[in-house]
Amino acid sequence: MTTHNPEAHGDLDAYWMPFTANRQFKQSPRLLTRADGMFFTDDQGRQILDGVAGLWCVNAGHNRPRIVRAIQEQAAELDFAPPFQMGHPKAFELATRLAALAPEGMDKVFFTNSGSESVETALKIALAYHRVRGEGQRTRLIGRERGYHGVNFGGMSVGGMVANRKMFGSLLAGVDHLRHTHDLARNAFSVGQPAHGADLAEDLERMVALHDASTIAAVIVEPVAGSAGVLIPPQGYLQRLREICDKHGILLIFDEVITGFGRTGKAFAAQTFGVTPDLMTVAKGLTNGCVPMGAVLAQRRIHDTFMTGPEHAIEFFHGYTYSAHPLACAAGIATLDTYAEDGLLTRAAELQGYFAEQLHALRGEPHVIDVRNLGLVGGVELSPRAGEPTKRAFETFLDCWQQGVLIRTTGDILALSPPLIAEREHLDRMIDAIRVALRRLK
Q1: pTM of the predicted model, to two decimals?
Q2: Do 284 and 172 share a structural domain?
């Protein structure tokens, strides 16, 4: 087992780490010092295979020369430009490039700095859109159980992960939730989209009957729920949500912060599933994780609804100091160039068959009760240890780390989302590390 000397890196006490077991970490730190391609290097000089693309974001792999160079050159040329009433060329260039990648009609782009901010922005656009068009009574937002939409108050409110919500009061009023689609009894070990569960979309009709459609502004879902443990949408589910939203004049928001930029085999999951939302949130893979950035992509008709009144007046009172930051835009453009040059936005489609085969080979290993996959994202659900929920998965995470492989856990679920540059031998090593760890678990 590797050992670490915290003193070699200075005092670890001051940093309150996010979504981390702080006490456990600081007793046995896992410190990363460099990264290149598919690998991190830790403070002991060990090579750590990145099985989660950093945090679902480093889709093109680490230390890509074009992206690094673009950030360096941009910092020397224009380090900041105010985004309110001003602009810079790369902001418009990146927006145009994103619009060209997006599903047809989603050709307006509002920049943020993270996935959480993208969700808040999309929710505000939805509410304001209905008000501007004369239906200001549409204030209700519909999320989904086990959904993750970031950690700001709007995102927590429409999200459905209990641990993310329970400490923070009553959150936003006027929010309701669809049931989640996870059905172990009928769908365990499905390869790709499960067969059962499209009927769960009818929950939205039930909410229309309860609240009346005239009060509902938007529904927000992740096409694939990543942080909840890789929950793949049942066949026909997203299509039915789209139909119900259209029927009742409700906006459909896809949270593609995780699924965007090639994770499901096309640029966006909306294209993989053939369902176009009204608004779409992105972040993470937008800059390959190099510089914080997010965006909301909107249907043109939504944007154009705001373009009324005196031309000198601000149409939408929202934005951030660092919206369309020059360094982020430079990184974003270089990232899209890298994706295009290497064919990465469709690479998951090429690898998903082999990935599914290797991942589902874990069926029958100790404690495994489900395996799920789509594109180049996979989840392995473990039976929880009695009286110690989440601990079995966390021990697997630590064992894989000792083997030199980084995976992710959520609850008692293991998640894999390797960079899209992964080769078969990388996928084999990730699965082998999990297999070894599972066989050592009690």
Answers
A1: 0.97
A2: yes
